Amino acid sequence: MNVFRLCGDMSHVFSIVVLLLRLRVAKNASGISLRTHELFLLVFLTRYTDLFTTYYSLYNSCMKIAYILSTASIVYMIRLSDPICTTYDKAQDTFRHWAFAVGPCAVLATLTHFISGEGSGYSLFVNIQELLWTFSIYLESIAILPQLILLQRYREVENLTGNYIFFMGSYRALYILNWIYRTYYEPGYRHHYVAYFCGVLQTLLYADFFYYYMQSKRRGGRFSLPT
Amino acid sequence: KESSGSKDEL
């Protein structure tokens, strides 16, 4: 554990807490993309299958469980919890996440899994686990797209929603620093280039948002995206 | 012991 990774994890947790608070306090899901959170839930469920097979640390296991439960409760609130679910604007949340996110990521994960030869010589179970892990890395990198597209529609960005996306984006940016740190200071560190590539892609997707977020913070005014 | 790299991350 290094400081970048810890800050990254805390930023991730913080973003989830901000969103949970926003949903609970405002009892309102307008401007929030259900599709993004369903994608994140799928990311966590496919990545953390190692909860049952590999123990890293108490911290690691607790965080994984916390991510799954908190994301599941976000999905539950937006879908089913009255009165929040009535404020969810389904008509605006239109990104075709199966066709343009889940499908392509599944294809890409299968291709990279077999081309890299990763998992050859392992059991079928381990192969499936590796495949799911690779899939989750790809999917996480673009899971925020439905949310960013929804924001473009609304343009006026609520403070809490803005903060949520800012911390969600900072988390992967901090992970990049963590990978650089580990490369230098951890002997025998094993590189996962798919994770690096997707981590950079994920951070770049937020770049535009970061820019307008910073500008609005500096001006101290309302946050709105340009047309 | 060999590091598991970014697989031990979240």
Give a description of the structure.
The complex is a heterodimer of chains A (227) and B (10). Chain A is an all-alpha fold and 227 residues long. Chain A contains nine helices and two strands. The longest helix of chain A is centred in the C-terminal third of the chain and has 27 residues, at 159-185. Chain A is globular, with a radius of gyration of 18 Å. The mean pLDDT of chain A is 94. By secondary structure, chain B is mostly loops. Chain B is elongated, with a radius of gyration of 7 Å. The mean pLDDT of chain B is 78. The chains are: A mainly alpha (227), B little secondary structure (10). The interface between A and B is medium-sized, with 23 and 10 residues.
List keywords for this structure.
heterodimer, A: 227 residues, mainly alpha, two-stranded antiparallel sheet, 9 helices, 2 strands, B: 10 residues, little secondary structure, 0% helix
Report Rg of chain B. Answer: 7 Å
Give the C-alpha Rg of chain A: 18 Å
End-to-end separation of chain B in angstroms reads 20 Å
Strand and helix order of chain A: HHHHHHHEHHE
| Mean pLDDT level of chain A | 94
Q: State the end-to-end distance of chain A.
A: 42 Å
Quaternary state of this entry equals heterodimer
In what range is the share of β-strand residues of chain A?
under 5%
Helicity level of chain B, as a percent range?
under 10%
